[in-house]
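Hey,
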Amino acid sequence: MAISSDYPRPINVNGYTCRNCDDVSKAKRFIDPTQSPLEASAAANDGKDSTDSAVSFGGSLVNRSTVNPSQPSRQVVDRLA
C-alpha cells in the first residue's frame, strides 16, 4: 500500500490550489503555496522601507533617535531620599 503525501484531487483554499496539508496551511495565511520561500519573502518586502534597523518605531516614537550623545547614558537616582 503506497502512502502519498498529496491529496487525490487538488482543493481550493482562499483562491489557491492546494495539493497537500502544507499548501493548505500557507493558503489559510494568504500565502501563495506555489511560490518558493525566497519569492514569497521578496514579494512581502515590495514597497516597504529597506532599512537595516532591527526595530522600526511608530507613533510618537517615529522621530526619536536611538542614540543621543548629548544626554548622559544613565541617570543618577538617590534611593535614600
